[in-house]
Amino acid sequence: MDPLIKLYLSLLLFFFSFLLLGEINGVESSSSNQWSPKKLFVFGDSYADTGNIKERQAVSWRVPYGITFPGKPCGRFSDGRVSTDFLAKFLRIKTPITYLRKDYGEKEWLWYGMNFAYGGTGVFNTKSSSPNMTIQINLFEQLLDDVYSQSDLSSSIALVSVSGNDYSNYLALNRSIAALPIFIKQVVDQTELNLRRIHDLGLKKIAIPSLPPLGCLPLYTSSQCCNETFNALVNYHNSLLEQVVAKLNNETNHSTFAIIDFYNAFLTILKNKGDNPENTRFETPLKPCCEGSCGNVDEMGAKKYTVCDDPESAFFWDGLHPTQEGWRSVYSVLDNLSTSLLKP
């Protein structure tokens, strides 16, 4: 072949390759508008706790908890995985190690962040043994510079789970129902302070689930119907939380804070009985799989509870917590999760 023709063909091939690569790079750059967090830091309560309470101090370490995953009790308040696990899966990172286990594993376990959530806790003191949200953030702050650097935090996301323990504690103390709206405002105000502090410590993105419909939890339902009075109070909490998040995002000029809409996700599953091609159908969604005093036995060792034959057929595991299948269904119907959490 003529050398000039060879040169011409080579240049032509290079030119089209350049165009092709440009198009491919253009596609990649457009898809790279999504941000990929490297670590997940978790603060909160039993909806997010993956084993921070010491063994024998909570029912989450007793049979039948954990029967679906990992096959034995592991500190999760469910038959298996909980909210933290499903959020980590969505983010394509491993479930972060619990603060309790941080000194007992390989250093690689720290690569995916850390979970400080503790079952039963709230933004205020709820139990004498439960570190509230402020204490959890203190523990996190103590690890900065030593275990985690500022560059670690700038590529990380935080989950801040507030699921209602402050309110159950308020009611348990027989405090005024009429004054509950005032207390709700105090809870949300303290949540705002916590969010500001976590952001000031360097976290790039902070996810805050809305309060789920507490009036639909088996512990509070009447004749298998949701308590609409409770849910009205939940809506008040969530409306205040939305205002706080909007204000914080306006101050930062960025979508730093994002609400995960647990309220409507829970209701969608409960009202439709999970009737979705991607979901299990829950025939009696307000009936828990583990009924009675789940995880407890009497002085003779007899169980004070009964467990359904198939936990996957139940949305709720016990009186307060979803099953693993329940949590999977919730995350499957959450709208705009990618937009809110993976936007740079």
From TrEMBL:
<protein>
    <recommendedName>
        <fullName>GDSL esterase/lipase</fullName>
    </recommendedName>
</protein>
<dbReference type="InterPro" id="IPR036514">
    <property type="entry name" value="SGNH_hydro_sf"/>
</dbReference>
<feature type="signal peptide">
    <location>
        <begin position="1"/>
        <end position="26"/>
    </location>
</feature>
<dbReference type="InterPro" id="IPR035669">
    <property type="entry name" value="SGNH_plant_lipase-like"/>
</dbReference>
<comment type="similarity">
    <text>Belongs to the 'GDSL' lipolytic enzyme family.</text>
</comment>
<dbReference type="GO" id="GO:0016787">
    <property type="term" value="F:hydrolase activity"/>
</dbReference>
<keyword id="KW-0443">Lipid metabolism</keyword>
<keyword id="KW-0442">Lipid degradation</keyword>
<dbReference type="GO" id="GO:0016042">
    <property type="term" value="P:lipid catabolic process"/>
</dbReference>
<keyword id="KW-0378">Hydrolase</keyword>
<dbReference type="Pfam" id="PF00657">
    <property type="entry name" value="Lipase_GDSL"/>
</dbReference>
<keyword id="KW-0732">Signal</keyword>
<dbReference type="InterPro" id="IPR001087">
    <property type="entry name" value="GDSL"/>
</dbReference>
